Amino acid sequence: MSEKLKLKGNLKPLVPNCDLNGYFEITKKLDLPSVLFKNKVFFNDFDTSTTTPDKTIFLQKNKPLLAQGKNIYSIDNAFSYLNDGDIILIKEQTISVAYRKNANATFLLLTEQCDNFCIMCSQPPKAINDEYIVDQLMELIPLLPKSLHEIGLTGGEPTILGNKFIKILNLINAYLPNTSVHVLSNGKSFSDDFLKKISERKHYDLMFGIPLYSHNYETHDYIVQSKNAFNETVEGIINLKRFQQKVEIRVVIQKNNYKDLPDLANFILRNLQFVDQVVFMGLEMTGFARGNASDVWVEPSEYQSYLKEAITTLSRAKVRCRIYNHQLCILDRSLWEYNVSSISDWKNNFISECENCLLRSSCGGFFATSDNRLPQKIKAFK
Ligand code: SF4
């Protein structure tokens, strides 16, 4: 497996007193009027001899012998993919790529705090005060392009931020009125008061993705490591619908719940048939999932019959189903029509077996972050 895309790194100052901080859009255009250059940095990845404006980042391999000007830096060649329209955050001579124009998905992480503690969490929560993240995002959102098709809000648990979460939603509504918004939430915070505030403003296309791991409350509570979470989450889903919000149920398939999938499908049909879609997801074996591998990992070949039964039950009742994070060669052929290439491109990879596979272009591939645990029985279509 190859490396995932590098999204964070250090800037090396090439002149004294470099003090650039904040969000900047990458440009490779040298002839921009100064008024349009205000929130931009010039990215020089092509020429060491070019006259360079202040606020320039050279790719390391192109850095000049003698740099002149203000705020001139160089950066690791691994960032050569940066292009016009990408947005970076510069903070104390570090750089994080906040938005890539060519990315297959754009996510904003609102917080690393969470009131669940899922045993397979790929992004383990941190009990820290990270409210500064929201303040940063308030600066980023106005810079995002109006043409952005969809944006995901994630965490941690984004709704734990209360009114700051609403503020972010409203800012997106104001600056990106034609962008779909997908919120990943554990569904435990959707009281009437909170939902009233969310629904006060008409959002263009807002959906909440809520995990529900089993029809059995004990199994769900065990997986999320939170007592009474099942009841709170089901109540949250019902409340979201009472306030006319779109809801997606997310089921991460793992050792503790794969045999429950048919019963969970029946539970959804009897109690939550109004949801907009149900997504069955493969594991990303990083974070807690990696440490808890013996308690969470199940070979996808083990659960194909359960998954097929669950999807057949839901589809017959016209509930829209999707499958994320799976490879075509391990999915039952009758399930291919539900499969979506869902892994973010910066951490999406293929293995050597895939090199000559006829279905590579339509296959979801692998998480680059899961390289210690790949499904068995991967076999190219020839
Ligand atoms: S072998 Fe083909 S179907 Fe299997 S994971 Fe690789 S590309 Fe996908």
Automatic annotation (TrEMBL):
<keyword id="KW-0479">Metal-binding</keyword>
<dbReference type="InterPro" id="IPR050377">
    <property type="entry name" value="Radical_SAM_PqqE_MftC-like"/>
</dbReference>
<protein>
    <submittedName>
        <fullName>His-Xaa-Ser system radical SAM maturase HxsC</fullName>
    </submittedName>
</protein>
<dbReference type="Pfam" id="PF04055">
    <property type="entry name" value="Radical_SAM"/>
</dbReference>
<keyword id="KW-0408">Iron</keyword>
<dbReference type="InterPro" id="IPR013785">
    <property type="entry name" value="Aldolase_TIM"/>
</dbReference>
<dbReference type="InterPro" id="IPR024032">
    <property type="entry name" value="rSAM_paired_HxsC"/>
</dbReference>
<keyword id="KW-0411">Iron-sulfur</keyword>
<dbReference type="InterPro" id="IPR058240">
    <property type="entry name" value="rSAM_sf"/>
</dbReference>
<keyword id="KW-0949">S-adenosyl-L-methionine</keyword>
<feature type="domain" description="Radical SAM core">
    <location>
        <begin position="100"/>
        <end position="316"/>
    </location>
</feature>
<dbReference type="InterPro" id="IPR007197">
    <property type="entry name" value="rSAM"/>
</dbReference>
